[in-house]
Automatic annotation (TrEMBL):
Belongs to the UPF0173 family. The keyword Nuclease does not apply. It comes from the Bacteria. Counteracts the endogenous Pycsar antiviral defense system. Phosphodiesterase that enables metal-dependent hydrolysis of host cyclic nucleotide Pycsar defense signals such as cCMP and cUMP. Keywords: Hydrolase. This is UPF0173 metal-dependent hydrolase J2T19_001645. SUPFAM superfamilies: Metallo-hydrolase/oxidoreductase. InterPro entries: Metallo-B-lactamas, RibonucZ/Hydroxyglut_hydro, UPF0173, UPF0173_UPF0282_UlaG_hydrolase. Pfam families: Lactamase_B_3. It catalyses: 3',5'-cyclic CMP + H2O = CMP + H(+); 3',5'-cyclic UMP + H2O = UMP + H(+). Residues 8-194 form the Metallo-beta-lactamase domain. The keyword Hydrolase applies.
Length: 230
């Protein structure tokens, strides 16, 4: 049995009852979020890339829970400098987290840490997504990405139970491209993420789910704080 909780933006928590992991925690900076970082209980923090709206709450959550932070090696190294327990990996690799296995897959985006006072941007490795085997299910979190053809190969090679896909546009693929991605991933359930947090990424998630249904795919809209058991 797997509990899936959506914390808003791209933040998803997957739990098996005794153990859980959270992906891209961004709560303090999201006006739509209903959960505070100090309320998160987790064993592992997975990061897809280094942009602020994906890593903002990684440090406080990891420290409060003595949680391991998993990320591409450059971002993991940066997080280790903050005194966190990190596990660096790279594209195509899989890490065993005891209660889950996470495979890093490609995403087409950028990844860097903006150092405002220095007016400098620090390289933080490639952006990524994850395929996570947990609680007997296979979960895909696409990360921030545009549409790319190898999504079909990923869908052909993995039987995906749930896919989390960005639909916001502007910074990631929008609904039209996300619909094509959903067809290629061919998950049993597709859940839209990375929308509505900022004005520039406002989208109609219900309409996207209707479009999924029109091509024979099941979709679900989750509000921040929503959970369900798979």
């Amino acid at each position: 049995m797997l509990q899936i909780t959506y914390h808003g933006h791209s933040s998803v928590q997957l739990g098996t009852g005794e153990k859980s992991l959270i992906i891209d925690p961004f709560l303090r900076g999201n006006e739509l979020a209903v959960t505070k970082p100090e309320n998160i209980k987790t064993d592992v923090v997975l990061l897809t890339h280094a942009h602020m709206d994906h890593i903002l709450d990684a440090e406080p959550i990891a420290k409060a829970n003595n949680a391991k932070v998993v990320a591409i090696v450059e971002l993991a190294t940066y997080m280790s400098w903050k005194g966190l327990d990190t596990l660096g990996m790279n594209m195509g690799g899989t890490v065993d987290l005891d209660f889950a296995q996470a495979k890093m897959i490609q995403a087409f985006h950028t990844s860097g840490i903006v150092l405002e006072e220095e007016q400098r941007i620090m390289y933080a490795g490639l952006p990524a997504g994850y395929i996570i085997n947990i609680g007997g299910k296979t979960i895909l979190h696409a990360g921030d990405t545009s549409l790319f053809g190898d999504m079909k190969m990923i869908g052909d090679r993995h039987k995906i139970d749930v896919a989390f896909l960005p639909i916001g546009g502007h910074f990631t693929m929008g609904p039209e491209d996300a619909l094509q991605a959903a067809e290629w991933f061919n998950a049993k359930l597709t859940i839209p993420v990375h929308y509505d947090t900022f004005p520039v990424i406002r989208q109609d998630a219900e309409k996207f789910v209707q479009q999924l249904a029109s091509v024979g795919l099941e979709g679900r809209v989750m509000a921040p704080g929503d959970s369900f058991t798979l």
